[in-house]
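User: Here's a chain of 289 residues. Predict its fold as tokens.
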Amino acid sequence: MKAKHEAALIASSFIWGTSFVSAKIGVEHVDPFLFSLLRFALASFVLLLILIVTKRFSWRLFENKLIWAIAGFNAVALELQHLGMTMTSATNAVLLIDINVVFVAIIAFFILVEEISKKVILGLASGLIGVVIVSTNGDLSAILTGSFLGNVMVFCAGVLWAFYIVYQKEVLMREQDILLVTCAVILTTTIILLPLTFLFTGDYQIDVPGGVSAIYTGIICTSLAFLLYNYGLKGMGATMASIILLLEIIFAMIFAFLILQEIPTVATWIGGGFIIFAIAVISMNRNRK
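Assistant: Prediction complete.
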């Protein structure tokens, strides 16, 4: 039984690793705001269908203001990620977004009154050094370039997802049905994405590569991956779950190289090393609590 949960966690990290490549392809063929809406609308449809079939749907969570706040963080972060990925690589995106684990520890200190240790401070310092190196490609003059702006956007998305994770943890501490919470957040995120899409989308055309990417990221990377992750987390606990972020980075970089022919620069390897070290330090700090 334990092997099944472990396999589910590894599978979710594999899928999420491919999502960065798929999203990169998607935003190159579809307006990033429209792509975000398509992705979450498809995910909402699938999860809503599962809830209705299993007779677990309830409007109760949709009346929870915290769910809407979480969805707000999620929606803005998603738009920043997809818009930023039109200007930066999938490799940089996964590194700069997954640094959110460091900020989760900082935010949890203020919101959930969790202890902040020397390891957390070390992780934060290492993570920020890595972010600067990856964002500028080791050259501070790159601050004025478009790729830097894209890097900043995906980094900000990671910070917003740190708030998302902390507040969602607060909801999950009170709610037993993980599937219902996941569906509620994804559906409310879709609702928030609607006006953003109509306000900022400049082109509503969808070609075949863009459509396929939206379907894959919506149904597989958003719906299926979350279900696999929640199933695995339930049976394995925090230790294995913490490794997910590291596996996701590795899978994303492999697929970015194989599919997009992205070759990480020396600065990306060095900065990525600082970021992965930061994630590992924070994860080990959590697991010992």
